Amino acid sequence: MFRRKLSALDYHNPAGFNCRDETEFRNFIVWLEDQKIRHYKIEDRGNLRNIHSDDWPKSFEKYIKDVNCPFKVQERQETVDWLLGLAVRLEYGDNADKYKDSTPDGAKNTDNAAKTAEPLINLDVNNPDFKAGVMALANLLQIQRHDDYLVMLKAIRILVQERLTQDAIAKASQSKEGLPVALEKHILGFDTGDAVLNEAAQILRLLHIEELRELQTKINEAIVAVQAIIADPKTDHRLGKVGR
To answer: From residue 37, how far is each of 56, 91, 152 by CA, in Å?
Structure first.
């Protein structure tokens, strides 16, 4: 339970420290006072350093009172944890310049995640090469032009993700086998007076319905794509922030 604090203090055995081992515990307290806390003057540490003395527990009890530890001698784990916390604070105070620019691992991961989530954040949208490249892609993919090149690039990304992935291409390449249709079950709604013409009209009507369905599907896809672009917060690179 003390590994992280012991590691931060460069203790020689952070993973194997056992505060229940009396000899190891006493040696640890001496090391902590000598190397990190240094509450006593060197000449006043004699009783604490004499770990083989029968009076050592009394010396330790006096020590934790002198450093204002809120726990009692019997609460060994809590006392050790508190002393380690004190040592870490003192260590930081002695080396403030060393640690002031340090970034916690969690913060680094958060920054990396943010960069991954918004890969377009560092692009120079005013670069002529960037504009030319976006325009060439938009023309190639037949995407509607927009005054904001970043918006066009996001539209390109959506199209590529939804239509040009390997799965999407494989699915589009699959041949569609038609299903047999019983024309007699579909009412035409009018009579031309000619059985052949009636049948042709029924076929044309079914084909028209299929075209309408495909058109509706494309309209729905377009709506989803537009909503995705509109819902995406407007990025103002000049201000260096994201927001509407």
So the answer is: 18, 8, 60
Q: How far apart are CA 95 and CA 74, in angstroms?
A: 33
Give CA–CA dist 108/96, Å, rounded: 20
Confidence (pLDDT) at 103 = 54
d(CA 112, CA 131): 27
Which amino acid would we find at residue 43? Answer: E
**Structural domain includes residue 111:** no
Tokens linked to 70: 């809120």
Q: Exposed, middle or buried: residue 139 (CB in 10 Å: 0-12, 13-18, 19+)?
A: exposed
Helix, coil or strand: residue 241: strand
Query: What pLDDT is attached to residue 92?
Result: 79
In the block, residue with structure tokens 């770990």:
51
C-alpha separations of 121 from 64, 109, 218, 233, 242 in Å: 53, 17, 30, 12, 9
Q: What is the pTM of this model?
A: 0.42
With respect to residue 239, please indicate whether it lies within any of the assigned structural domains. Answer: no
Let me know whether 169 and 192 are in one domain.
Answer: no
> Do 15 and 66 sit in the same domain of this protein?
yes
Confidence of residue 97 (pLDDT cuts 50, 70, 90): low
